[in-house]
Amino acid sequence: EYSCEYGSLKFYALCGVGGVLSCGLTHTGVVPLDLVKCRMQVDPQKYKSIFNGFSVTVKEDGVRGLAKGWAPTFIGYSMQGLCKFGFYEVFKILYGNMLGEENAYLWRTSLYLAASASAEFFADIALAPMEAAKVRIQTQPGYANTLRQAVPKMFGEEGIWAFYKGVAPLWMR
């Protein structure tokens, strides 16, 4: 007995929920480390090492400062996980049907790579706006402290492009 039929809407929804849980929760759990890493990249003179970065952040912002950017991280990576896991299955079935059963089996590694790349293309588009907001919150002191502050400010200053400047680098990685 299966919990749902392979390729059904329920199947895709469960894959998407799995992506939300695995990507959204794990990335949110490491926000303090990501915050310090980003700050080290932007200001290596001030944030000399991981331990120094944690110390400086706590000294300046308190322990709560280590959580800066948690909301865009959770939302962005949840959306990325939803698209990555859900669309991977969509594209795997779509491309497999296009190739036919025998060719899909013979070319399964290429099929899986193509499905994965296709899913990641859309997953990064879903992630980019929240990643842009997160980076501004974490690396530009005084710019914004919350997602609700960052989004309208970014849009007002640069328009919609502010949220998608990082999509090409996401695709490159």
UniProtKB/TrEMBL annotation:
The lineage of its organism: Eukaryota, Metazoa, Chordata, Craniata, Vertebrata. One of its GO terms (cellular component) is mitochondrial inner membrane. It catalyses: phosphate(in) + H(+)(in) = phosphate(out) + H(+)(out). This is Solute carrier family 25 member 3. PANTHER family: SOLUTE CARRIER FAMILY 25 (MITOCHONDRIAL CARRIER PHOSPHATE CARRIER), MEMBER 3, LIKE-RELATED-RELATED, SOLUTE CARRIER FAMILY 25 MEMBER 3. Inorganic ion transporter that transports phosphate or copper ions across the mitochondrial inner membrane into the matrix compartment. Mediates proton-coupled symport of phosphate ions necessary for mitochondrial oxidative phosphorylation of ADP to ATP. Transports copper ions probably in the form of anionic copper(I) complexes to maintain mitochondrial matrix copper pool and to supply copper for cytochrome C oxidase complex assembly. May also play a role in regulation of the mitochondrial permeability transition pore (mPTP). One of its GO terms (biological process) is mitochondrial phosphate ion transmembrane transport. Keywords: Membrane, Mitochondrion, Mitochondrion inner membrane, Repeat, Transmembrane, Transmembrane helix, Transport. Interacts with PPIF; the interaction is impaired by CsA. GO terms for molecular function: phosphate transmembrane transporter activity. It comes from the Eukaryota. It is found in: Mitochondrion inner membrane. Solcar repeats lie at residues 10-94, 107-173. It is a multi-pass membrane protein. It comes from Rhinopomastus cyanomelas. Belongs to the mitochondrial carrier (TC 2.A.29) family. Its main location: mitochondrion. Pfam families: Mito_carr. The keyword NAD does not apply.
